[in-house]
Amino acid sequence: MTAGAPHDVNLGELEVRLVERAEEARHQALMQAHHYLGALPKIGETLWYVAIYRGAWVALLTFSAAAWKCGVRDQWIGWDGRRQYARLKLIANNSRFLILPDWHRSNLGSKTLSLCQKRLPADWRQRFGHPLVLLETFVDPQRFHGTVYRAANWLYLGQSLGYRRVRGGYSGTPRAPKQVFVTALQADARVILAQPVLPPSYHIGAPTMRLQAEHMRSLPEWFADIPDPRQAQGRRHRLAVVLAIAAGATLCGMRGYQAMAGWAKSLGPKARARFGCRRKDGAYVVPSESIIRDVLIRVDPEALDRALHQWNARHGDVDQTLAIDGKTMRNAIDGEGRQTHVMGVVGHTSKTCYTQKKSAPWR
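-> C-alpha cells emitted (363 positions)
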C-alpha cells in the first residue's frame, strides 16, 4: 500500500468533480497506464471526472456519446430508428471507469458513481447546452461482473451482439459481447425517449418552427380544392383539416404518422379551432394517427404539391437556400405493391417545408 492510501476510507469525505484543463494530461496518463482499454480522446461531447479523497486522486471516469446501436437498450427504451438517431444525445455512455491502484475499497466504486450521477446532468447541460435523461455502460464479462454498477442500482439489460463501432458504421463480424447496464437520471426517462412528440425542453437542434395563428387559420384554405379520395360515408374530419394538421406538424419538426398524431393531440383548444377541427361534446377533436395515415397515402400527390407551392409562395419568401431530403414511407404500399416515397424541400432560414412530392418508384 502506497503512502496516502489509508486502509479505511470514510466515504462521506469522497468528492467528485470535473477534471480541470491543467489536469487533463495527468488524467490521460493514469488512464493509459492503468485501464485495460487505455485512454479515450476527448472527442465531441465528453466529460472527465476525478474522485478525490483527502486531496488524493482515487478514481477516474469518462462520460461520452452513447452507442449508435444497442439491441437490448433500444428494445428496452421502445423507440424506432427515426427517434433513436434524433435522441441519442439524451443518453451518455460511461465509457471509462478506473479505480486507481491501492484504492480498491468496499463501496468506493458505487459511491463514486452515485456522486457522479448527481452532478452529471447539470454539468452536461452547462457544457453542451442540452439535458441527459439516461446513462449506459458496457462491461466486458471476461474481465468483470458489473458488481460496481449493480451496487449502484444500475439495471442490467442483457448482452450486446458483440459488434464494435468502426469508421463508417460497425464491424462485419462480432467480437466478445458486452454486458449492458443503464440507469435513468429521471423517473420518466423511457417515456421521454420513446414518446412520439419530444417535449420542447428536450429538443436538440432539430429544424422546427412555431406556427402562428395566421398559419393555422390559412393552411386549411390552401387544401380546400383537393379532391377527397375517401368515401363520403364515415368521414369524421374534413380533408383540408387533416392535410393542414399534417403540414403544420411537419413544419414543427414532426416526422412520421405517429409523431404527427401526437403533435395534433398536443394542440390546445384555440389552436384546434384555428385549424377548423370539428366539435364533439363541446370539445374540438383532432384526427387520429390512422386517419392521417389514410389521407396521406391516398391523397392526390400532384394536387397536394400545387397547394403546398401556393402556400409557400406567400409564406416562404425569406429563404435564400433550400435543403432537399427524401424518405420512404413505412407501410405505404400502392395497389401494385410499390412502396411510396416522399421528397421534401425545406428552407434553411425559415425551416419551412416548401413542397413535398409523393411517388412510387418502379420495383
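Confidence is low (pLDDT under 50) at residues 166-171.
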